[in-house]
Fold this sequence. Notes:
By secondary structure, the chain is of the alpha/beta class. The protein has one domain: Glutaredoxin. It has 6 helices and 7 strands; from the N terminus they run H-E-E-E-H-E-H-H-E-H-E-E-H. The protein has helices spanning about 5-20, 60-70, 80-90, 95-100, 115-120, 150-165, and strands at about 20-25, 30-35, 55, 70-75, 105-110, 130, 140-145. The strands form 2 sheets. The protein has a 5-stranded mixed beta sheet, with helices on both faces. A two-stranded antiparallel ribbon has the order 1-2. The protein is globular and about 35 Å long. The termini are far apart.
Amino acid sequence: xxxxxxxxxxxxxxxxxxxxxxxxxxxxxxxxxxxxxxxxxxxxxxxxxxxxxxxxxxxxxxxxxxxxxxxxxxxxxxxxxxxxxxxxxxxxxxxxxxxxxxxxxxxxxxxxxxxxxxxxxxxxxxxxxxxxxxxxxxxxxxxxxxxxxxxxxxxxxxxxxxxxxx
Length: 166
């Protein structure tokens, strides 16, 4: 194999890996891996079918967040998003995530149906996870997949960040 062919092959495979494994979400965001990555400690499903109490209306979630003085977690997803479905099956039912979510008003927003809300938050890919004050002002945005341990830690960290800002 000559040097030219080797260089072209290397560039091709590097580009392919970047296109398949990563998604760029604009701005100053770094590319985020969109495939599930397991952590060292396996998460356990919540007992007895305990689930997150999802709001399905952004407006209702905002009203509730202000009334209950809780921060708001916005899960931007779509019906066609495979990674979103993986999170629905493998992340949100886990006990550590369900427990951490109880301090938040949790809302699922379909980014296709509520493109206005997605645009307002600068969402350019799915899933996008937004941790925000009860005013709706973002504390942090995470594009892509978060495993159960990572998400429960993000919920805790951003809850503390919200408390300090209040």
